[in-house]
């Protein structure tokens, strides 16, 4: 008979029938649902076997099968980790190509507007109370970070907020696609998010927009949630274009200055 569920952990006791298959099914579901994230370390073998109520040999068999399937990786001396299962979504060559062409950032924001707008509208209906609490807490953290002179904190929370909206939509395809795109953004491949937050006036507007998105979600108003999110990403797109134009102008001005300084 399986042990009683363990509170405050995503790992639950396993039915004793075909133990290793049941372990695989549970961990696969946690990865697919986004509970276990790429790069996340699993608990140690003894702890994990205890949480799931299975023998260590059954657990080893399951973990070995998942490693063979490319879902888990072992780092000697460190443990077992969730593989970067979305790593192939953007090959290194494609990442380099994207980073060299500004049009990619524009297309990225357009695609995000479509994806996240739909996700926000869906989240207003599909989100559970816990999802809404997560969103509300992130916005409250944004309010606190807003008074800091360091834009890095608020920029990181911005990424978390947008990811939480997609998670709250409970659409698995949207979730994993958004995570793949967020990885590109966090690496600074498309544009410098902290730079956007460097302007005090723009930071104020972005915070107000995040509050408006959250307010609409808390009221479970789908059309308003989508409209607020699309307005926000439109602002980011306009800002990115303006920054790129300013950079181009500055580069030309430096060339003119250098040319005049030459004998």
UniProtKB/TrEMBL annotation:
SUPFAM superfamilies according to UniProt: GntR ligand-binding domain-like (SSF48008), Winged helix' DNA-binding domain (SSF46785)
Keyword annotations: DNA-binding, Repressor, Transcription, Transcription regulation
CDD domains: WHTH_GntR
This protein's record includes keyword Transcription regulation: yes
GO molecular function: DNA binding; DNA-binding transcription factor activity
Residue stretches making up the HTH gntR-type domain: 17-85
Keyword Transcription regulation among UniProt keywords: yes
Domain of life: Bacteria
SMART domains: FCD, HTH_GNTR
InterPro entries: GntR_C, TF_FadR/GntR_C, Tscrpt_reg_HTH_GntR, WH-like_DNA-bd_sf, WH_DNA-bd_sf
Protein role: Transcriptional repressor for the pyruvate dehydrogenase complex genes aceEF and lpd.
PANTHER family in UniProt: PYRUVATE DEHYDROGENASE COMPLEX REPRESSOR, TRANSCRIPTIONAL REGULATOR, GNTR FAMILY
Protein name listed in UniProt: Pyruvate dehydrogenase complex repressor
């Amino acid at each position: 008979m399986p042990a009683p569920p363990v509170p405050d952990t995503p790992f639950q006791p396993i039915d004793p029938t075909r133990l290793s298959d049941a372990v695989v099914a549970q961990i696969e579901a946690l990865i697919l649902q986004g509970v276990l994230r790429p790069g996340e370390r699993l608990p140690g073998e003894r702890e994990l076997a205890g949480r799931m109520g299975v023998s260590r040999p059954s657990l080893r068999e399951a973990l070995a099968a998942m490693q063979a399937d490319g879902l888990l990786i072992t780092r000697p001396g460190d443990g077992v980790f969730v593989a970067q299962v979305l790593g192939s979504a953007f090959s290194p060559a494609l990442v380099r190509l994207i980073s060299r062409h500004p049009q990619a950032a524009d297309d990225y924001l357009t695609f995000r507007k479509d994806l996240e707008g739909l996700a926000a509208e869906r989240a207003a209906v599909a989100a559970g109370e816990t999802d809404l609490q997560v969103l509300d807490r992130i916005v409250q953290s944004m309010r606190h970070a807003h008074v800091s002179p360091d834009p890095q904190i608020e920029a990181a929370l911005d990424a978390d907020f947008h990811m939480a909206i997609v998670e709250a939509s409970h659409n698995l395809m949207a979730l994993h696609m958004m995570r793949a795109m967020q990885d590109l953004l966090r690496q600074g491949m498309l544009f410098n998010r902290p730079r956007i937050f460097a302007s005090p006036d723009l930071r104020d507007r972005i915070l107000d927009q995040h509050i408006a998105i959250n307010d609409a979600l808390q009221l479970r108003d789908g059309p308003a949630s989508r409209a607020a999110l699309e307005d926000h990403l439109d602002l980011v797109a306009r800002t990115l274009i303006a920054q790129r134009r300013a950079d181009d102008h500055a580069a030309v001005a430096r060339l003119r200055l250098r040319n005049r300084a030459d004998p």
